[in-house]
Amino acid sequence: MKQRQGLIALAFLAPALVCLAVLRIVPAISAVVESFYTESLLRGGRVFAGLGNYTDLLSNKDFRQPVGVTLLFTVLVNPIQVAVSFLLAVLFTQRAAGARLWRTLVILPIATPPAVSAVIWSVIYRPDGLANGVLERLGLPAQPFLTSPGQVLPSLIVLLSWIGVGYWMLFLIAGIQEVPEEVREAALLDGAGPWRRMISVVLPLVRRPLAFVLVADTVSNLLVFAPVQILTKGGPNGNSNLLMYDVYSRAYAIGDIHVAQAEVVILVALTLAIVAAQFRLLRGDQ
After folding, report:
1. CA angle 204-206-208, nearest 5°?
2. How many beta carbons lie within 10 A of that of residue 51, not counting itself?
3. Which residues form the signal peptide (predicted)?
4. Does 187 or 240 have the greater pLDDT score?
């Protein structure tokens, strides 16, 4: 009986497992294998290069710059998105008039594909766009935004936060709603104000969903591609050249597919290292 139930369960899981193998596992193995080869004009095909692609990348300043930009971007964007998502989740779980309406408005960008969101914000960031119109109303000078080396990364952070904050907020709202009401009432009777209840009561009890949001948001931001490809092409001066866009440039603009595969492997390793460090720190806090 148990064997039959196992076979039935496997039959239901088979399509998902096949898709996982074809779309994830096989391409991952292929990327690792191809990263050890290079194209040889003399031999008329690919030849085994060992770790040559990796050593060339790590010694190349044109690769070190996108690594630095990606790490800086990750350090800046993740705390901002997680903090804003948590504050909005706390705010929208309060019993206040209009909370559901505002929650819906914050969630709406989730339904918009990243490429479409990038096009919308390209209009907002134009010299005669909405952002500079607001600044003009406030009596402030117009800003270059995406064409400024110092402003391009913050501009992308605002765009990606507009896209992602509502999504991560949903997980935190679900966690906050699981906090027992009697715990909140006990804190209220003890004289704790709204901020004290949020920091001392709510925050510790939503640590698990908060940890999930932090890790998932980190992975998501390390793989950002569409907004960079549509808005900045990695510029100006490489100040928005994130690793995913650099992989695309090497593979399709330069045509060096094997070095691009090596860069993919490095990006995955970097992502795993950051996520592992986050898990270790979060476990240490517990």
Report:
1. 105
2. 11
3. none
4. 240
Q: Which two tokens stand for residue 243?
A: 């690793």
Q: Which two tokens stand for residue 216?
A: 């998932």
Q: Sign of dihedral through CA atoms 200, 206, 207, 210? A: negative
Q: pTM here? A: 0.87
Q: Euclidean distance between the first and final Cα of the chain, in Å?
A: 42
Note the pLDDT tens digit of each residue in 209-230: 998 999 999 999 999 999 999 9
Q: From CA 46, how far away is CA 38, in angstroms rounded?
A: 5
pLDDT tens digits along 147-167: 999 999 999 999 999 999 999
pLDDT, tens digit, 9 for 90 and up, residues 122-150 = 999 999 999 999 999 999 999 999 999 99
Helices (H), the chain: 2-20, 26-34, 52-58, 61-92, 99-107, 114-124, 130-137, 152-177, 181-189, 194-197, 203-205, 207-222, 226-231, 243-248, 257-285
By three-state DSSP, how is residue 169 classified? Answer: helix
Rounded to whole angstroms, what are the CA distances from 2 to 5, 9, 11, 15, 17? 5, 10, 14, 21, 21
The encoded tokens of residue 28 equal 């991952």
Give the DSSP H/E element, type plus range, for residue 36: none
Residue showing tokens 């399509």: 15
Q: CA-based diameter of the chain, in Å?
A: 81
